[in-house]
Amino acid sequence: MSETKKFVDVKESEKIDPWLDQLYHLNVGVIGQGTERHERPHKPVMLLAVADLIGAGLIRENRIAWTLELRKRFGELFDQVRREDDKETPENPFFYLRSEPFWHHVAKPGKEQVVEALSSPPLIGELKDGLMTASLDEDLFRLLTSEEGRNEFREALVARYFPAKRELLVSVSSTEDQASMPKEDKASPVRSSAFRRLILETYDYQCVACGLRIRLPNDFTVVDAAHMIPFSVGHNDHPTNGLALCKNHHWAFDQYLITPTAKGIWKVSSQIEPRRSPGEAELAKLNGERLLPPREEAYLPSPEAVRWREEMLVN
C-alpha cells in the first residue's frame, strides 16, 4: 500500500487541525488606510494555486517548483480576488512565504546549504529550469494529496481571506475536487477556535457591547467571538464578519435580541421589557450605545453583515 493511500485512509478533519491557526494568521502585507485598508491576497492565492496543482497531478512530490504552470494558476485565481492596487506578482509570495513556519525553500542541486536556496524572489526567466523549488511541512503536503484534505485546506483559506469571492474561485477551478468544495452546516471546533483567536486579537479581548475585558496570563478570557452572518450561511471567517462579545451579550446576540446598526450603535429588540426583570433592564440600556471599535478601522463589521443582522432582529 502506498504512503498516499495510507494517509487517505486517515480521517482528514483531524489532520487539518494543526494548520488552521497558521492559515488564519498568515503574515500578509497590508495596504491603504482606514476602511480602504486591506490585506494583500498574494500568499493565500499562492497556497490555493499549489493545492490546485497537486489536485491536477502536476505536483506529485513535496517539491513545489517555480514553473509556468504555477504562475498561470496563480494568475487565474488572483484575477478573481485582486483589487485595483494589487499587482500580479507571484514571485513575491513564492519567496516571502518562507516567513511562514510550514513553507521551506529547497537548495538547488549541488548546493550544500539549504538556507542559500533562494535569497530573493525568482525571476520570470527562471521558470523553465525548474530549479527554484520549495517544500511544505511533510504532514501538510500529505494532507494536500487527498481530495478531502485539499478541500479542507481551501475552505479555510477562502473562508478567512476571500469569503465574498467563494463562488468565483470555485467557478474557475481546473480540478474536480475544488468544484465540490464542502458546504459545511457549521464551522468545525478547530476552525471556530482559530476564528475566535483572530477576533479576540482584533478587538483586544474586549466585549464590544459592554467593554468587559478579562485576560489572564494563561490567555484565559471570558470574551467569545461571534459571527455576524453565521458560518453556515456565509462561510465567512473574515474579521469584518466577527464581533468580540462577553457571555451575556453573546447569548443575546445569538437570540437576535441585539444588533449593531449601520450608524455604529446598538439596537435592542422591542421584545426586551426593562420593567420585567433587572436583567432585561440592563440589556435595554445597550440601546443607542456605540460599538467599541476594533484595532483597525478596516475590520469594522461589513455593511452586508450589519444589514443581515438588522433584518434578523426579533421585533
SSE topology:
Elements: H1 3-8, H2 12-15, H3 17-24, E1 30-31, E2 38-39, H4 42-55, E3 64-65, H5 68-81, H6 91-96, E4 103-106, E5 133-136, H7 138-144, H8 147-161, H9 166-171, H10 189-202, E6 223-227, H11 231-234, E7 242-246, H12 247-254, E8 258-260, E9 266-268, H13 278-284, H14 303-312
Antiparallel strand pairs: 1-2, 3-5, 4-5, 6-7, 8-9
Helix pairs in contact: 3-10, 4-5, 4-8
Number of helices: 14
Strand order of the largest sheet: 3-5-4
Order of helices and strands: HHHEEHEHHEEHHHHEHEHEEHH
Shape, per Cα inertia axes: elongated
Largest sheet: 3 strands, antiparallel
Name the beta content range: 5-15%
Distance between the termini: 60 Å
- What oligomeric arrangement do these chains adopt? single chain
SS content category:
mainly alpha
The gyration radius over C-alpha positions equals 22 Å
Please supply descriptive tags for the structure shown above.
315 residues, mainly alpha, 2 domains, two-stranded antiparallel ribbon, 14 helices, elongated
Describe the structure.
With 315 residues, this protein is mainly α. It folds into two domains: 3-180, no CATH class; 189-312, no CATH class. Helix content is 39%, strand content 10%. It is built from 14 helices and nine strands. It has helices at 3-8, 12-15, 17-24, 42-55, 68-81, 91-96, 138-144, 147-161, 166-171, 189-202, 231-234, 247-254, 278-284, 303-312; strands at residues 30-31, 38-39, 64-65, 103-106, 133-136, 223-227, 242-246, 258-260, 266-268. The strands form four sheets. The protein has a three-stranded antiparallel sheet. It has a two-stranded antiparallel ribbon with strand order 1-2. Strands 6-7 form a two-stranded antiparallel ribbon. Strand 8 and strand 9 (266-268) form a beta hairpin. The model is unreliable at 1-10 (pLDDT under 50).
